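Structure tokens please, single chain.
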Amino acid sequence: KNYLSIFTQAYSRVDIKARYRFEKGLEVFLNMNNLTRTGDVTYRNTSTRNGYYTEREEYYGMNVHLGVRFRM
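Here you go.
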């Protein structure tokens, strides 16, 4: 048994992208990323009875982009 093994927990992100095109080149768009605010968690195995402990946690916040675009 390798007591120094490391693994990163699997996760899923939820993203939404929407766009509406008006006449004459006008467009409105919305991009929403990481709605669940899920992060990366890495664990390291130990030689104790408890097994793994959290070595590193990285969380990336949700971000939203709303915009208007005109295409000629």
